[in-house]
Amino acid sequence: HSGFVAIIGRPNVGKSTLMNFMIGQKVAIMSDKPQTTRNRIHGVLTREEGQIIFMDTPGIHKPKHKLGEQMVRTAIDTLNGVEAVLFIVDATMPKGAGDEYIIEILKKVKDTPVYLLINKVDIVEKNTLLGIISSYKDDYPFAEIIPISAKTGDNVDRLVDNLMDRL
Ligand code: GDP
Ligand code: MG
């Protein structure tokens, strides 16, 4: 049970917080600068049953110029080359253009299972959460849809167990 897992999502959804929670270290902080796919921050989670190398990937955003387009191609290549993708969305915000753009990128990725993680469940009402889930669930054939809190760790163990089983 081991492999590479990419973490994607628009800014501020909780990518770094989740990776830090899972690996228990503050290593992803530097990754918030836009367009730094070249400096992807990796975090390693080691358990008795296996090892997961997480990649916090800030490079997926609407390209504004040529360099951006190259970055997007790099991002697609990255997502094709990993064992699973964690697509994080923010349960406190409606689906926006940034989320839709990432879904379009995911549609160009072949055969990599994509987990939809609805983050920040610690601060949303249940009905809001259900509304967010239904707004995404038909957009893409997600391998799993898991509501989590990267901050409190709610459901994060379940996520890691599920990933370990898949790898
Ligand atoms: P990133 O840009 O996707 O890496 O997002 P960050 O991990 O930097 O998080 C952005 C903000 O959301 C920070 O202020 C976090 O503390 C906050 N945040 C992240 N996850 C959660 C969560 O599960 N619950 C709450 N309440 N806040 C969160
Ligand atoms: Mg970050």
UniProtKB/TrEMBL annotation:
Q: GO terms for molecular function, please?
A: GTP binding; GTPase activity; ribosomal small subunit binding; small ribosomal subunit rRNA binding
Where are the stretches annotated G3?
56-59
Spans annotated as G5: 148-150
Membrane topology annotation: Peripheral membrane protein
Q: Where in the cell is it found?
A: Cytoplasm; Cell membrane
Residues noted as binding GTP in the record, renumbered to the chain: 9-16, 56-60, 119-122
Tell me which GO cellular component terms the UniProt record holds. Answer: cytosol; plasma membrane
User: Where is region (G4) located?
Assistant: 119-122
An example GO biological process term is: ribosomal small subunit assembly
Chain intervals for the UniProt region annotation (G2): 35-39
Q: Where is the region G1?
A: 9-16
What are the Era-type G domain coordinates in residue numbering? Answer: 1-167
Q: Keywords in UniProt for this one? A: Cell membrane, Cytoplasm, GTP-binding, Membrane, Nucleotide-binding, Ribosome biogenesis, RNA-binding, rRNA-binding
Recorded superkingdom: Bacteria
* Role: An essential GTPase that binds both GDP and GTP, with rapid nucleotide exchange. Plays a role in 16S rRNA processing and 30S ribosomal subunit biogenesis and possibly also in cell cycle regulation and energy metabolism.
Annotated family = Belongs to the TRAFAC class TrmE-Era-EngA-EngB-Septin-like GTPase superfamily. Era GTPase family.
What subunit structure does UniProt give? Monomer.
Tell me what this protein is called: GTPase Era
Q: Point out the gene that encodes the protein.
A: era
